[in-house]
Amino acid sequence: RVADEDAWEREMPNGVQDKLSYQQEMREELLAAFNAGEAWPEMSYQVAEDDGRIREYRFRVVGRETVEVPAGTFSTIKAERVRDHDRRTTFFWLAPEHEFLLIRFEQTEADGDGFKLLLKEAELAGTAGGAQS
Fold it and tell me: Are 124 and 130 in contact (CB under 8 A)?
């Protein structure tokens, strides 16, 4: 193992998520609401940050959008991370018909810098689609 100056160690309370597992939990909550015909839930997760701090990540569904990405065109719901004092914006576009698969992700800092992720390729229900590498 290579020593990592940014490594940290701490006891985690029950229910704390990491930066990947909270996204899976979000998908599961949205899928449950979708299958039950319920309103979209407000979602909140305790997430371990890269520095070991635990922060609350809150999300809400802000609408539906048709999104075109290299993997194709998808009907999605758009979820936004709710922040009280941060001007950074974070959006997730998830496809209900594909178990809320993440289709697009976009984060923009207050100064306009940021990044986006677009689904390039996927095999959905046994059918491959998307850009060929």
Answer: no
